[in-house]
Amino acid sequence: MGTTIIGTLIIGLVVGIIAKLLMPGRDPGGCIITMLLGIAGAFVGTWIGRLFWGPNYAAGWILSIIGAMLLLLIYRMVAGKRG
């Protein structure tokens, strides 16, 4: 089980980094925020996939990155209104 959690965190970090690279701009947050962004992106990607391809869909790399990019966009919109 510990290996699964570590693997999930590493994949989340990679997905978060790719999403941030594809959407250039200033983003506060370090490694942990990037990792959480990637992991949450996978959940959003799975949700999007299930809307189109059925209840058993699990997000792969591309939809995970798209989900992370959507979350990053929403985050920037919310953070932009604050400051």
Total separate domains: 1
**Termini Cα gap:** 41 Å
Radius of gyration: 13 Å
Mean pLDDT: 83
What's the number of helices? 3
Instruction: Classify the beta-strand content into a percent band.
Output: under 5%
Which series of helices and strands comes N to C?
A: HHH
Low-confidence stretches: none
The secondary structure category is: mainly alpha
Shape category: globular
Percent helix among the residues?
A: over 70%
Strand count, sense and barrel status of the largest sheet are: none
Strand count:
0
Tell me what you see in this structure.
The chain is mostly helical and 83 residues long. The chain has one domain (2-82). The protein contains three helices and no strands. The protein has helices spanning 2-22, 31-53, 61-82. α1 (2-22) packs across α2 (31-53), α1 (2-22) packs across α3 and α2 packs across α3. The longest helix is centred in the middle third of the chain and has 23 residues, at 31-53. The protein starts with a helix and ends with a helix. The mean pLDDT is 83.
Topology diagram in text:
Blueprint: H1 2-22, H2 31-53, H3 61-82
Helix pairs in contact: 1-2, 1-3, 2-3
Give a short synopsis of this structure.
The protein has about 80 residues and is mainly α. About 80% of the residues lie in helices and about 0% in strands.
What keyword list fits this structure?
3 helices
